[in-house]
Amino acid sequence: MSEALLWSQLRKGQKAALETLYRAHAPVLLQYGNKFSTDQQLVEDCLQDLFIDLWQRRQQLGEVSSVQSYLLVAMRRRIVRQLSRQQKHETSAEPAEYQFDCEIAIDEQIAARELSHERNLKLKDALEQLSPRQKEAIYLKYQLGMSYEDIGKAMDISYQSVRNLAHSAISRLKDLLIQGWWIGFWIFFGLY
Amino acid sequence: MNDKYLTYDALELAQDDAFIQWVKNGDSPMPEEWDKWLGQHPEKREEMEEARLIVQSILIKEAPVSEERISLLWEKIDAATEERAVRAKVFQLRPYRWLGYAAAAALALLIAFFFLRPDGAVTIENGFGQVAQHILPDGSTVELNAGTTIRYEKATWAIARRVSLEGEAFFEVKKGTPFVVETPKGEVIVLGTSFNIKTFEGRFDVQCYTGQVQVSAEGKRELLTAGQMAHWAESDWQRATFDATNNPGWQRGRFEYHSTPLQEVFAEMERQFDIRIDAPDSILARTYTGSFERNALDSALYRVCWPMKLKSSRSGKAVIIQTEENAE
Fold first, then answer.
1. Across-strand partners of B190?
2. Which of A18, A136, A143, B227 is most buried by a 10 A CB count?
3. For chain B, what is the radius of gyration of the CA atoms?
4. CA–CA separation, B251 and B264 (whole Å)
């Protein structure tokens, strides 16, 4: 059954649609949530409240272009709100920069085929240096297949900012990954 | 196929949603068209191979989520979104141990305080030194801690289930229309559930034992499910979790504290033992961690005072608390 159909059944008050949507999206939403906090309870509470709220507001729900994007955006908002609330109570300081604990790596087979050992190390280094926001943008785009428009909505930044975040990360990846005449040059002078 | 791709380099292609889908799971909206397009534009092959390499190489490590966890969470969501018209759950009153000795006294006092005014307003005022139980017109039950008052309109109960509360009470609500508890600081709205509300000493604490509860104060709302509690402080809600397997301590005659100002502890003792405690402000501000039980006043005084290096002296219903040095 298509997501759009499930969504409209949910709006009409069919409980089975809520369960189907939950079972289809809960694993991804939990995995996404865990990137922000290692507090299992907090992440599960957010997911639970999200679906309870979805049911209670079903009559006010509008059409959505992508159910997954809608749920990811809603999940992110809840978690960020809970985390900033916790930080506010624990310390009087400004909320810290958020974490996005996600390990981005290079497919080992491709690395072995395309890259020298030295370039592979540099690539790993470059990936580790990605900021939390860059990691999140790449995660949403390449793992979950979200469009830049939706990523912008989720992260509450402009379309252009998302593009810039991802673009600088991907172009660095490309430079290290793609062999060209300048390969010797890079090895000699190092990365940037 | 969109001709915009002719102007794309590998980098742009690697960020195109349709392209990513095609590379990652071959279910792009136009899989054959990519092949066809490549046939028409062989000069783009190199760019495309590069882009494909970039997309394929990105690997995100993901911990699997167990099926069991998903199902457990669903059970909670399912219970919380259960349609109220479907079935009305009848809560059985549990026979509490204190009931035996307290029932007779409580009943007598309840009747004494039970004012059925002509307009249908019912006030239940529970005195100090006891716990009282009351059954609301729809069969929902409320158990009142010592020194607690509730009010409701009997005449309009069928239309609006509304109770106002001052003090502390444990509610077991039958399913039906929204059930609202008004407190001096805010409201608690539920459908059918059990929960504890504490409003003593300016507090507004709500603990949800089963089902779900919505609390609101100053326009700020929180939804609580079983095992969650909310504490209203400095115009905002603080959430926490607690063990919902046992009923609140006061129902079992046990009072536990964690870094709680003595002022609150003594106020609870005054209500439970129907006494009057006098202590200097410097003592009242100190915080206490420990517990006391309702069965014996002297042992309760000892359990609170001894770890705090305090001395109590009692004559009848008046208790004076001092520091050990001052008492000597």
1. B179, B213
2. A136
3. 31
4. 18
Domain boundary among B182, B206, B241: B241
Q: Which residues contact B276 (CB under 8 A, 6 or more apart)?
A: B270, B317, B318, B319
Any residues with CB less than 8 A from the CB of A50 and at least 6 apart, and which? A29, A71, A74, A75, A78
- Whether A143 and B60 lie within 8 Å, measured CB to CB: yes
Q: What is the pLDDT of residues A146-173, one digit of tens each?
A: 888 888 888 888 888 888 888 888 888 8
Q: How far is B11 from chain A, CA to nearest CA, in Å? A: 6
> What pLDDT, on the 0 to 100 scale, is given for residue B95?
47
Local mean pLDDT, 10-residue blocks, chain B (328 residues): 76 83 66 74 81 82 85 88 48 48 63 53 83 85 88 84 90 84 86 81 86 85 88 88 81 85 90 89 88 85 87 86 75
Task: Kindly state whether residues A138 and A72 are assigned to the same domain.
Answer: no
Residues of A in contact with B79 (CB under 8 A): none
> How would you class A2 by CB atoms within 10 Å of its CB: exposed for 0-12, middle for 13-18, buried for 19 or more?
exposed
The percentage of chain A sitting over the pLDDT mark of 70, rounded to a whole number, equals 87
CB-based contact, B240 to chain A, within 8 Å: no
The domain spanning residue A15 has which CATH number?
Answer: 1.10.1740.10
Q: What are phi and psi of B63, to 5 degrees?
A: -80, 135
User: Domain for residue A161, yes or no?
Assistant: yes
Chain B neighbors of A164, CB-CB under 8 A: none
Say what the ipTM of the complex is: 0.81
The string of DSSP codes covering A144-174 is: T---HHHHHHHHTS-HHHHHHHHHHHHHHHH
B-interface mutation test, from A87, A174, A175, most B Cβ less than 10 A away: A174
What confidence tier does A30 reach under pLDDT thresholds 50, 70, 90? very high
Predicted local confidence at residue B107, as pLDDT: 64
Probe site for chain B from A19, A35, A51, A79 (most B CB atoms < 10 A): A51
* pTM for this model (two decimals): 0.50
Domain that holds residue A27: 3-90
Give yes or no for a contact between B14 and B54, defined as CB atoms under 8 angstroms apart. yes
Residue partners of B197: CB distance under 8 A and separation at least 6: B165, B168, B169, B171, B181, B183, B188, B204, B205, B206
SS3 B262: helix
The verdict on A74 and A150 lying in the same domain is no
Which residues does A110 contact at the CB level (< 8 Å), separation at least 6? B53, B56, B57
Alpha helix (H) residue ranges in chain B? 10-13, 17-25, 31-40, 45-57, 67-80, 99-113, 262-273, 281-284, 297-305, 324-327
How confident is the model over A43-56, as pLDDT tens digits? 999 999 999 999 98
Any CB–CB contact under 8 A between B61 and chain A? yes
- Spell out which residues of chain B touch residue A45, defining contact as CB-CB under 8 Å: 225, 228
Q: Does B296 touch chain A (CB under 8 A)?
A: no
